[in-house]
């Protein structure tokens, strides 16, 4: 059994697929770094997505933040030394959740910004839930780093969101939806996007690098790598 300086880190996730994707990615990365039979020391908390989705639809974000804040408190009490919210959308309440605990949070946008800068991306397309694409809580953080963010047209935002919630969260992958996403991505490329952020875990189930002619930045891969870097002391800061 290996103990890191930051020996515990925790995840909050709202969907089962998100749990498994982030969990698997983090453990694979730890094993690649340490070899042998090593895996990550993780405290994992998952809440009922139906409850969260209803609050999102009703614009009850403060209540969502309270739920996540209580979850974060329980993880801190259990020994977590830093935490992740493993969903872009719920970063809308990231500040509220952070205020509930004393341990630091690894913000998903900060990890993404680091990757974009390393790849010299100055204009990026963003795919995600309608909340992530339409509201400023995620985009503004990237814009503040002098990276322009392009989002699809309103009609395409609805298509993307419907596929996420009606198909991908249920594990349904169809060629028709893949083609729709590829067409939307091509529009963003035509508008000048140098890369595409897959800002929702489930989109990575549908779109891979071979499906796109410019670099993709998968939130699951990026966030997981940043968490492992920090846990293994390869990165001394969370942003």
From TrEMBL:
<dbReference type="InterPro" id="IPR015942">
    <property type="entry name" value="Asp/Glu/hydantoin_racemase"/>
</dbReference>
<protein>
    <recommendedName>
        <fullName>Aspartate racemase</fullName>
    </recommendedName>
</protein>
<dbReference type="Pfam" id="PF01177">
    <property type="entry name" value="Asp_Glu_race"/>
</dbReference>
<dbReference type="InterPro" id="IPR004380">
    <property type="entry name" value="Asp_race"/>
</dbReference>
<dbReference type="InterPro" id="IPR001920">
    <property type="entry name" value="Asp/Glu_race"/>
</dbReference>
<dbReference type="InterPro" id="IPR033134">
    <property type="entry name" value="Asp/Glu_racemase_AS_2"/>
</dbReference>
<keyword id="KW-0413">Isomerase</keyword>
<dbReference type="GO" id="GO:0047661">
    <property type="term" value="F:amino-acid racemase activity"/>
</dbReference>
<comment type="similarity">
    <text>Belongs to the aspartate/glutamate racemases family.</text>
</comment>
């Amino acid at each position: 059994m290996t103990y890191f300086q930051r020996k515990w880190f925790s995840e909050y996730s709202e969907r089962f697929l998100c749990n498994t994707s982030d969990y698997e990615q983090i453990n694979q990365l730890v094993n690649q770094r340490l070899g042998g039979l090593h895996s990550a020391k993780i405290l994992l908390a998952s809440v009922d997505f139906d409850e969260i989705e209803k609050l999102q639809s009703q614009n009850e974000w403060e209540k969502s933040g309270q739920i996540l804040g209580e979850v974060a408190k329980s993880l801190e009490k259990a020994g977590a030394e830093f935490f992740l919210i493993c969903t872009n959308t719920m970063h809308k309440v990231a500040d509220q959740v952070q205020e509930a605990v004393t341990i630091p949070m690894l913000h998903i946008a900060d990890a993404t910004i680091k990757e974009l800068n390393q790849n010299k991306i100055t204009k990026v397309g963003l795919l995600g839930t309608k909340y992530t694409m339409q509201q400023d809580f995620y985009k503004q953080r990237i814009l503040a780093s002098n990276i322009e963010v392009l989002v699809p047209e309103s009609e395409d935002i609805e298509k993307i969101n419907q596929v996420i919630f009606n198909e991908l969260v249920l594990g349904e992958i169809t060629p028709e939806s893949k083609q729709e996403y590829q067409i939307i991505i091509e529009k963003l490329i035509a508008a000048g996007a140098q890369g595409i952020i897959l800002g929702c875990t489930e989109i990575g189930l549908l779109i891979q690098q071979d499906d796109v002619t410019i670099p993709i930045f998968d939130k699951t891969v990026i966030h997981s790598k940043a968490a492992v870097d920090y846990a293994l002391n390869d990165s001394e800061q969370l942003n």
